[in-house]
Amino acid sequence: MATDKVAETVMAGNYVEMETEGKPRTMKTRFSKFFWDGGSVYDAWFSCASNQVAQVLLTLPYSFSQLGMLSGVLFQLFYGLMGSWTAYLISLLYVEYRTRKEREKVDFRNHVIQWFEVLDGLLGKHWRNVGLAFNCTFLLFGSVIQLIACASNIYYINDNLDKRTWTYIFGACCATTVFIPSFHNYRIWSFLGLLMTTYTSWYLTIAALLHGQVEGVKHSGPSKLVLYFTGATNILYTFGGHAVTVEIMHAMWKPQKFKSIYLLATLYVITLTLPSAIAVYWAFGDMLLDHANAFALLPRSPFRDMAVILMLIHQAMLVLQFITFGFACTPLYFVWEKAIGMHECKSLCKRAAARLPVVIPIWFLAIIFPFFGPINSTVGSLLVSFTVYIIPSLAHIFTFRSATARENAVEQPPKWVGRWAGMYSINVFVVVWVFLVGFGFGGWASVTNFIHQIDTFGLFTKCYQCPPPPPLASPPHLYNVTAATPPPALHHHLHRP
């Protein structure tokens, strides 16, 4: 029986890979495979790592100013492990669902499996509906956040245009992601994205250390409960980027190998997020409370050639935002395609045209709520807490609640977690903790902070947290002659609204 299970599990592979085995490789196919057709363990690792950190890298120093240094470090480690655990659960449920379906001879040749379909197949339509609602809403606002980040980052290179105008521009740019068919095709982009994120992280670290602490720097965090739980929820969001885990797994030739990939990606991401967040918070302290984007506090040209490097870093982050926008939006494209019956269409142009309506509400929401930083925490508390942590943990509990289901599970729990009893205990802990701390306290704090941003800046704000324009200097009076007062008609004309 065990041998049969292993054999059937291995069958849950990728059809495209199986079809290409044994066929002669031309230069075109070699080129396509190298840059375009990804499905290996390394592709999945690059996708998870580049998707996980993204623009949150720039808001973590802001979170440290809310949490304080010690809590910031501990929450990163804690939520990093918790996020890896729930990604592991999702991978187990995906393999369980796909293996069951392929035993029934279901063909996924032209169909991308998604999380709500896994819930439907294992637990029924009610779970599917809940999972679909949370997942789609999270991915929608996740895409909104990436678009806001694009505008925020480019503004610190070129402030001739305000952030809202840059949002218009990058909304059009990000719409080009409709032409990327699936997660198979992010190979080169994932690699470049992670390379650029790594460079950005170490730039922030080194630049902050070279800059040194600002005069009179204060590190008063945590000072308020609202700020404390807002910062904690932002970190919850940081390591909750695996709402696209199922799609990444489905793009693998051997999805069974995904189990430890997310953990390894998280460990690498922590080597990027901790040094940069610690260094920037050490240098600027409480100033970060009013600057959610870390780039806002680093001088443009403090060390001569550093201005050029800063520009390159910004450009690198903009490319990464495009990649991450695609990661967040592609599952929404799939859902929309399935809803209108276009998912199995082989015409790339027709599918791209059908996807365009998905981008429009994302574009609009990014213009309404341009609150870079606070929106991360709000999405994390209200959506990520359920989508990424609570629902997968409960789904695993209910899928294997019966002795028969546990006995016939495709993969048995490892000894190091204490088998089924250990897994149940960890799952219950995750559900209780995230519901109380992430959704409960975090939701209260994040929504309070978000409402404060609306009251302070207003909706459709033109340039969120932009420095005020310098006051206009009075023109010098030549020869010490007082300018004549304009005639009444001209004076009225000059001051007419």
UniProtKB/TrEMBL annotation:
UniProt-listed GO biological process terms: amino acid transport
Q: Does the entry feature the keyword Zinc-finger, yes or no? A: no
| Transmembrane parts of this sequence | 73-95, 132-154, 166-184, 191-214, 226-249, 261-284, 307-335, 356-373, 379-400, 421-444
Sorted keywords for this record are: Amino-acid transport, Membrane, Transmembrane, Transmembrane helix, Transport
Q: Which Pfam families match?
A: Aa_trans
Q: Which InterPro entries match?
A: AA_transpt_TM (IPR013057)
Q: Where is the Amino acid transporter transmembrane domain?
A: 38-414
| Main subcellular localisation | membrane
Task: Quote the subcellular location field of this record.
Answer: Membrane
The GO cellular component terms are:
membrane
Superkingdom: Eukaryota
The entry's protein name is Amino acid transporter transmembrane domain-containing protein
Q: Which organism is it from?
A: Stephania japonica
Q: What taxonomic lineage is listed for the species of origin?
A: Eukaryota, Viridiplantae, Streptophyta, Embryophyta, Tracheophyta
